[in-house]
């Protein structure tokens, strides 16, 4: 197992190991630690404790390598965590938050934006839709950047793209005489859309490189859930800022502030892609496969393909739900204020559910069970929404259903990303999480097109509060199809997804090798003087 021996560890048990010579029987620092592009881990030697001290630190051979064992082995072999990992996570979370606010900043005030710039509603919708379209081709590039260039430079480039896009959108107000303001608005949104793929793929990578085994799911959750929080703030802040058309420049300027602060923090505070010393044995092997080789391994991994299709379908369903919620409920007479409340409950309870479930999974490591149960509960609630959304006057029931849909559905997202990394080892975290997101965006576009294509105009009078001026739509068939797809993905996942936790097994194997090396019998043996490569 190349790369699991700590720097400076004498390895007389492996006389044929790479890097051993008759004059230097000591194994060098693992190549996987520092040969990768974007890596800065030095191959320094760690001082060995005295033989008596090492004997005292040996763990019982039968212990399961849990959190306590991991911490003890980390102390023994210089696996360390650094407080600045939280700074990196803060910058990444702020970047994801800012990018999400820029995504949906126009949608809540689309009518005023359209009237002010003399644009059509379809053009305004494209300012948000460009995120979905751009993420499909740019997602593959983002996977390569994360696994090849390094997390630090990927985050800095993402922050500058995000900031440049936020400034580019305001040029129609800064520069007079612009004939086509839509080109600047779309150009700014496109730059932000390119930044989205980098920031969405990064939490799993950051968790693996900087956080110990018992904090990875929590760190992934914090980075992932910053995005829906940004969506929530954009839906609340844009209508509060824009009371009349003259307020549009102020709104665009305010959204520049978090993008600028995050860009400054990323440039000034992120000094390295990886910590000086790894937090776990797995971090040494992060991104151990080349880009194209990693993609081939993912496509040949049956468990990963099943998870990618099902979880990608879940991403598509949730994207469609968020985009179509207002159109579905206004047909039955629900006000925009109530629909906004349902959207807020959907996100708030989703973040709370993700926090609780991530903490639970960090302790128990029940990734598969948590994802399968979460998917099944989400399917039940999705069926309930499809039925209740077609009734009038069910405000309490709809508010509860939207809360439960976020609680069960959103909670699964960060855990499913961690599970994707577990079942795809040794493929890099960027590729494992990124390919699922790209597939989810593609499925989201297909599902949204299919749901809108199945709608029909209602001929009979209704209590509709829709203000599109074209008559209300009948979403009954579309909502039943959405519930059916959610149920289908859940059943497929439960029946066909089975996988070992390959990353945890690799860490456990490394721990067992260390325990065997540190046994008293091994300690008393001297290195063989004739060890040869």
UniProtKB/TrEMBL annotation:
<feature type="transmembrane region" description="Helical">
    <location>
        <begin position="126"/>
        <end position="146"/>
    </location>
</feature>
<dbReference type="InterPro" id="IPR036259">
    <property type="entry name" value="MFS_trans_sf"/>
</dbReference>
<feature type="transmembrane region" description="Helical">
    <location>
        <begin position="373"/>
        <end position="391"/>
    </location>
</feature>
<feature type="transmembrane region" description="Helical">
    <location>
        <begin position="181"/>
        <end position="201"/>
    </location>
</feature>
<dbReference type="InterPro" id="IPR020846">
    <property type="entry name" value="MFS_dom"/>
</dbReference>
<dbReference type="InterPro" id="IPR049680">
    <property type="entry name" value="FLVCR1-2_SLC49-like"/>
</dbReference>
<feature type="region of interest" description="Disordered">
    <location>
        <begin position="1"/>
        <end position="51"/>
    </location>
</feature>
<feature type="transmembrane region" description="Helical">
    <location>
        <begin position="86"/>
        <end position="106"/>
    </location>
</feature>
<feature type="transmembrane region" description="Helical">
    <location>
        <begin position="397"/>
        <end position="421"/>
    </location>
</feature>
<feature type="domain" description="Major facilitator superfamily (MFS) profile">
    <location>
        <begin position="88"/>
        <end position="502"/>
    </location>
</feature>
<feature type="transmembrane region" description="Helical">
    <location>
        <begin position="295"/>
        <end position="318"/>
    </location>
</feature>
<feature type="transmembrane region" description="Helical">
    <location>
        <begin position="338"/>
        <end position="361"/>
    </location>
</feature>
<dbReference type="Pfam" id="PF07690">
    <property type="entry name" value="MFS_1"/>
</dbReference>
<feature type="transmembrane region" description="Helical">
    <location>
        <begin position="254"/>
        <end position="274"/>
    </location>
</feature>
<dbReference type="InterPro" id="IPR011701">
    <property type="entry name" value="MFS"/>
</dbReference>
<feature type="transmembrane region" description="Helical">
    <location>
        <begin position="153"/>
        <end position="175"/>
    </location>
</feature>
<protein>
    <recommendedName>
        <fullName>Major facilitator superfamily (MFS) profile domain-containing protein</fullName>
    </recommendedName>
</protein>
<keyword id="KW-0812">Transmembrane</keyword>
<feature type="transmembrane region" description="Helical">
    <location>
        <begin position="475"/>
        <end position="497"/>
    </location>
</feature>
<keyword id="KW-0472">Membrane</keyword>
<feature type="transmembrane region" description="Helical">
    <location>
        <begin position="433"/>
        <end position="455"/>
    </location>
</feature>
<keyword id="KW-1133">Transmembrane helix</keyword>
């Amino acid at each position: 197992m190349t790369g699991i021996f700590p720097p400076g560890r004498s390895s007389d048990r492996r006389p044929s190991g790479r890097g051993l010579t008759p004059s230097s029987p000591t194994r060098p620092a693992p190549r996987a630690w520092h040969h990768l592009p974007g890596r800065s881990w030095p191959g320094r030697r760690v001082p060995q404790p005295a033989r008596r001290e090492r004997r005292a630190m040996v763990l019982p051979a039968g212990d399961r390598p849990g959190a306590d064992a991991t911490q003890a082995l980390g102390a023994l072999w210089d696996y360390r965590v650094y407080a600045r990992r939280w700074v990196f996570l803060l910058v990444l979370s702020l970047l994801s938050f800012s990018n999400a606010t820029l995504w949906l900043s126009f949608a809540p005030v689309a009518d005023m934006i359209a009237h002010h710039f003399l644009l059509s509603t379809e053009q305004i919708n494209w300012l948000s839709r460009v995120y979905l379209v751009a993420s499909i081709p740019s997602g593959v590039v983002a996977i390569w950047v994360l696994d090849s260039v390094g997390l630090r430079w990927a985050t800095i480039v993402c922050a500058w793209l995000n900031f440049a896009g936020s400034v580019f959108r305001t040029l129609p107000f800064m520069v007079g005489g612009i004939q086509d303001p839509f080109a600047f608005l779309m150009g700014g949104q496109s730059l932000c859309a390119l930044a989205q793929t980098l920031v969405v793929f990064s939490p799993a990578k950051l968790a693996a490189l900087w956080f110990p085994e018992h904090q990875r799911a929590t760190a992934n959750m914090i980075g992932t859930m910053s995005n829906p929080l940004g969506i929530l703030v954009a839906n609340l802040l844009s209508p509060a800022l824009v009371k009349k058309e003259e307020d549009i420049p102020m709104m665009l300027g305010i959204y520049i502030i978090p993008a600028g602060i995050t860009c400054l923090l990323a440039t000034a505070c992120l000094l390295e892609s990886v910590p000086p010393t790894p937090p776990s044995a797995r971090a040494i092997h992060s991104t151990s496969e080349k880009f194209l080789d990693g993609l081939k391994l993912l496509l040949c991994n049956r468990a990963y393909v099943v998870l990618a299709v099902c979880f990608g379908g879940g991403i598509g369903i949730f994207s469609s739900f968020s985009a179509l919620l207002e159109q579905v409920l206004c047909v039955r007479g629900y006000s925009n204020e109530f629909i906004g409340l349902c959207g807020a409950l959907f996100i708030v309870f989703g973040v709370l559910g993700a926090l609780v479930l991530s903490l639970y999974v960090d302790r128990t490591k029940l990734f598969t069970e948590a994802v399968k149960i979460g998917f099944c509960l989400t399917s039940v609630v999705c069926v309930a929404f499809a039925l209740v959304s077609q009734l009038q006057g069910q405000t309490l029931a709809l508010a509860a259903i939207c809360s439960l849909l976020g609680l069960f559905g959103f909670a699964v997202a960060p855990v499913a990303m961690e599970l994707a990394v577990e079942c795809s080892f040794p493929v890099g975290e960027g590729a494992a999480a990124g390919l699922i997101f790209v597939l989810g965006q593609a499925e989201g576009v297909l599902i949204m097109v299919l749901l809108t294509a199945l709608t029909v105009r209602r001929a009979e009078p209704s209590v509709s509060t829709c203000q599109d001026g074209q008559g209300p739509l009948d979403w009954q068939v579309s909502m039943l199809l959405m519930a059916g797809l959610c149920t289908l993905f859940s059943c497929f996942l439960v029946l066909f997804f089975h996988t070992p936790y390959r990353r945890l097994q690799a860490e456990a194997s490394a721990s067992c090798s260390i325990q065997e090396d540190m046994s008293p019998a091994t300690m008393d043996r001297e290195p063989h003087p004739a060890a040869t490569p």
